[in-house]
Amino acid sequence: MANLPQVVPNGVDGILPEVQDSQQPEVSSTIKVLPSNFYDSFLSTEAKERKPSPIRGLFPLEKTPGVISLLAGKPNTATFPFASLQFTTGHPSDPAQQVTLKVDDAVLAEGLQYAATDGITPFVAWLYGLQERQHGRKKGEGWRISVTSGSQDAIYKAVHALVNHEDPVLVEKPVYAGVIPIFESLHCEMVEVETDAQGIDAQSLRSILESWPSSKLKPKVLYTVPYGCNPTGMTAALDRRLEVIELSRQHDFIILEDDPYYYLYFGSAPRIPSYFTLEAQTGVAGRVLRFDSFSKILSAGIRIGFVTGPDKILAAIDSHTASANLQASSFTQSVVVTLLDAWGYDGFLAHTHTVSQFYRSKRDVFEAALRRHLDGLAEWVSPEAGMFFWFKLLLNDDTSVEGDSAHLIQTKAYENGVLALPGTVFLPNGASTAYVRASFSLLEEDEVNEALRRLRVVILKERGQ
Ligand code: PMP
To answer: Domain of life of the organism in this record (predicted)?
Structure first.
């Protein structure tokens, strides 16, 4: 398909990342999977009431040999003004080496037409291979994939598939601000679970669950961002993940593993397996719903993510998609699969390695500037994935009083020419905090230094120095 330079197998020429590939979990042979009726008590009323689309459900039958379909109101692709499509990209290990890729005509035809709700055939097939390879879970063992318009789309639909109005839900404290309105619009009680430099605090989770009033409905879901968390930048440690899985079994909840920064891991220790991997390695699988995104590794504007998890929950998500937006853009999928097919899995991992190393150097630049300008004025833990620093402003000398970064960041810092997010934005129950979230993805070294120099001036003034 492509004139792409040959990608040499991992490690052979020293170009491709060894860490990522050597950490691939074994693909399971057979694992114990929760039965389909297990999810009956988990699905929301909305999901149970939504009927499958009578037309989309029949789409696969159109491929039956010998069948003439009078089914769908599909426009005729012959009338579409896109005869062919090609684009230029860089070699995954050497972006400066440019190649031109052409979208295969049959793939383009599929991409220009209405397609299956879960995604176009070659793309979904590629994603199954990726998940098997990265997470060691074999296709056909109780899980499925659906392509969505970014992972946000999948998270929104998953929450609606599982959570009823006014249900309690478990969220990390602080939590990705993008899920707060989803839970708020359902009037959920967001029960905040403490986190620290090791990620979610399993002890805090345990004590919340063990002291849960027996008369009160228990939370059905826990939402967590395990790699390079947004906003804290922290990555959940292995023992924490294992404890969370154990708690999910003891207290009967589903783990929503939102992992858009998985491929942006740049730590030196081996990669920690995903919840999706770990649940299968440690017992019965079926309590993890995993969200992946191409936003941080291919492009945010292509709006492509995918959700991986139990068939029954995925069917509910697909039903939602079929009534809300029919499908994620098949055109975009056709472009993405052309690139991914040309790269192959090793090439893809080489690319994500390059991207993660890019963010590692951005992290280093930001941290050096933090040390230079905010030494003694802020505290932080260095992130090993993602694109965020979460730092605590030391607004006075009394360390027993945390203080509140909101006014300083929203007003004074802005007036002094620097924009950041006060930590309170990530606390759904409105608590104040001295923490601030700063993104290090875009800025050059001189801009980082200038931003933190300006912040220093504002903090010193606040401290009366
Ligand atoms: N989850 C988290 C934790 C995020 O940080 C983001 C992007 N800000 C998303 C989900 C949404 O990503 P996408 O572009 O794939 O919808």
So the answer is: Eukaryota
